[in-house]
Amino acid sequence: MALRIGIDTGGTFTDICLYDTERNELRVFKVSSTPDDPGRAIIDGVSELLRIADAGGFADISYFAHGTTVGTNALLTETGARTGLLTTRGFRDLLELARGRRPRLYDLQADKPAPLVPRDLRLEVTERVRHDGTVRTRLEEDEVRAQIRRLRDEGVEAVAVCLLYSYVLPDHERHLARWIEEEFPGAYVSLSSEVLPEFREYERLSTVVANAYLGPKVSGYLARLRERLGEKGLAARPYVTQSNGGVVSFAEAEKYPVRMVLSGPSTGVVGAARLASAAGHPDIITFDMGGTSTDVSLVQRGAPRTSSGLDLDGRAIRTAMLDIHTVGAGGGSVARLDSGGLLKVGPQSAGAFPGPACYGHGDLPTVTDANVVLQVLNPEYFLGGRMKIDPEASRRAVGTLAAELGMSIEDTAQGIIRVVTANMARAIRVISVQRGHDPRDYVMVPFGGAGPLHASRLAAELGMTTILVPESPGALSALGLLLTDVRSDFSRTAVMPLGTGAADPSAGDVAAVLGGADPSAGDVAAVFAELDAQAERWFEASDIEERARGTRRQLDLRYAGQNHELTVAFPAGPVTAESVAAALDDFAAAHERAYGYANPGNPVQAVTFRVQAWGEIDARPSSSPVVGGRPEGEQPRSREVYLPELGGFHECLVYDRTALAPGTVVEGPAIIEQMDTTTLVLPGSTARVDAHRNLVIGAS
């Protein structure tokens, strides 16, 4: 028996997908998360799902992949390791100076986040490498060893090393790593030349410090989970998700935990892109609404957009990742009045415990409680009946807020929905309108436990006309773990002239295409060859078969004199006049799209070279999920649902999603329930079940 498991740990629920390759059967399952020990929910949830599915035990699992927010939460809550820093003399305070910008331009009192390494643990070493890689000042070994011993005596757990030009010449950082191992065995060591061999010293410093800060916590969590899985009988190599949408082994993740800051939401985007493309919708906007936050992303031609990093809580994180924008808007987001008496929703969340008031442990009104009051959500239970709720607790919580507003409970609940919808609409405009894309040209793909519940009103807010709800949206991030590949990214900064793109490449004259900069063609080839070699070593270390290997090249380009770059694809194979000209043409088009103009004939610089390597997985799920429910054809129930479009409570048909066969058409207003989510179909809309068992919602 060959079982494949994908697990996504969220703030409120842990989602589990089980794919039995012999039976070609896919099952999804949800359990409450255990924030104090996320691994407990994983072990208990997998054990229960294996029992329910009668699918054997942990020893029968051939593939195990896990998405986690352990690293992200440690950064946001500042609960990482006590970390020390070794840096080039004169750059001790760079972590605090950053880019010299205030968090909010017009707020003179706004505080920057506290550095992850306090000043007394930021130590300098005498050394200097020039920008061209030549050594001006060599390391003083005795001085360095003394600084290492000082950090050891201060009780640090992790040491970040970031020297000024280590991305050009990493030798000095490697010497430091060897001396740290000798003087301070057991310390977690993170080198900037390994974590981010790119220029811009502040971003590189901030990223390597975050990597070291997260290292002991993430590696400890993964080590404990690996041990518990082994005790249960798991023999397969476990994987964990990265921010780039791929998975890597636990061992690699322990070395580069900073690459996991978007571990949770990334595979949901990958899964949505694959499912929507198979259904004939390659251009989509994903809308992942969970219990704590909402993540949105834009996908063109079936390929998720990528980014080189983000600022997380005011701290620069630079690593390859999917372009995902996050806001604090989820089912557990708390509604309150601000100091001006205005209704606010989020970013504070009730989380998994105490959770929304209806869970029976808390009394704060949340988005989930508002939906229970409106009876859009089942007022009796969640998770297909496995989780009983207290609707009166929701009414009491929302009622307290209603009394402060002087409004009815129902109008207050609907007000909470309107506010959270506006918050999510702003998030989608960030990744669409603000980047030159009209959301009306895209199909919305909602997932997460609360995504389909809010999708119809959110789409109406944005003018989007089509919504595609996957068959198992509440567990799509976990399902995405069964659809994604093993993946790693390699990069290196090497600033060099690339040419202007003004010449005609048809004659095959590399010097002409490069604007006379003939040597750069060989330099481009040399840098890509170095990165290709790193990818090859990664393939071998990851035991990826030759037939499953793939790579993709990218290049960060800018006009000479600019301070920011645009990333374009670079053709595979030998560097030729045609491949360089193609990259230059793509850059001009990207510049036109981003800034509204291009400068033909202006010198173009290549800045950072990138290679993405992946190993394709076998046995992707092809069956429909088994989630339980009534047999097809059973008549729907009904209940009164508060719909402002119809002036108040209105009798709505309530359908079981598992009873809807392909070709079924549901006229709104209607509610479609399933184990992992609820879908609202508004008046004037129609939901049709397509051949892939997706719900496609559009105007009647």
TrEMBL record:
<dbReference type="GO" id="GO:0047423">
    <property type="term" value="F:N-methylhydantoinase (ATP-hydrolyzing) activity"/>
</dbReference>
<feature type="domain" description="Hydantoinase A/oxoprolinase">
    <location>
        <begin position="204"/>
        <end position="489"/>
    </location>
</feature>
<protein>
    <submittedName>
        <fullName>N-methylhydantoinase A</fullName>
        <ecNumber>3.5.2.14</ecNumber>
    </submittedName>
</protein>
<dbReference type="InterPro" id="IPR008040">
    <property type="entry name" value="Hydant_A_N"/>
</dbReference>
<dbReference type="Pfam" id="PF05378">
    <property type="entry name" value="Hydant_A_N"/>
</dbReference>
<dbReference type="InterPro" id="IPR002821">
    <property type="entry name" value="Hydantoinase_A"/>
</dbReference>
<dbReference type="InterPro" id="IPR045079">
    <property type="entry name" value="Oxoprolinase-like"/>
</dbReference>
<dbReference type="InterPro" id="IPR049517">
    <property type="entry name" value="ACX-like_C"/>
</dbReference>
<dbReference type="InterPro" id="IPR043129">
    <property type="entry name" value="ATPase_NBD"/>
</dbReference>
<feature type="domain" description="Acetophenone carboxylase-like C-terminal">
    <location>
        <begin position="523"/>
        <end position="693"/>
    </location>
</feature>
<dbReference type="Pfam" id="PF01968">
    <property type="entry name" value="Hydantoinase_A"/>
</dbReference>
<feature type="domain" description="Hydantoinase/oxoprolinase N-terminal">
    <location>
        <begin position="4"/>
        <end position="183"/>
    </location>
</feature>
<dbReference type="Pfam" id="PF19278">
    <property type="entry name" value="Hydant_A_C"/>
</dbReference>
<keyword id="KW-0378">Hydrolase</keyword>
